[in-house]
Hints:
Layout: E1 3-15, E2 28-39, H1 47-56, H2 66-80, E3 84-93, E4 105-112
Antiparallel strand pairs: 1-2, 2-3, 3-4
Amino acid sequence: MTTHEITLRAMRFHALVGILPHERELAQPIEIDITARVAEGDGIVDYRHMYDATASVFSNGPVDFLEEIADRVASRLFADHRRISSVRVAVRKPQVALGGPLAYAEVAVDRTRDD
């Protein structure tokens, strides 16, 4: 069986993400990477649709945790594209204050299609 990978790196969005009061009021930059493994089959997995599916996870208002974003993106990609067999979604928050120098906080989720 042949698989292909589609990778989208450093997609940038502004969103309400976090549990602190200021994170619920001021949108902040979020970066997302996706690596999707695509099995053989009919049709294509269009990376434009993958981008749109990723952007749509922010349309329902504030999100508490980066993990929630990654899970939503993975679920949406599986729902939209039957040929995606597994996906890795990494979500970064570059402007996180933790008391010292830090480039970003990142959460990554690896999921495989269950069915």
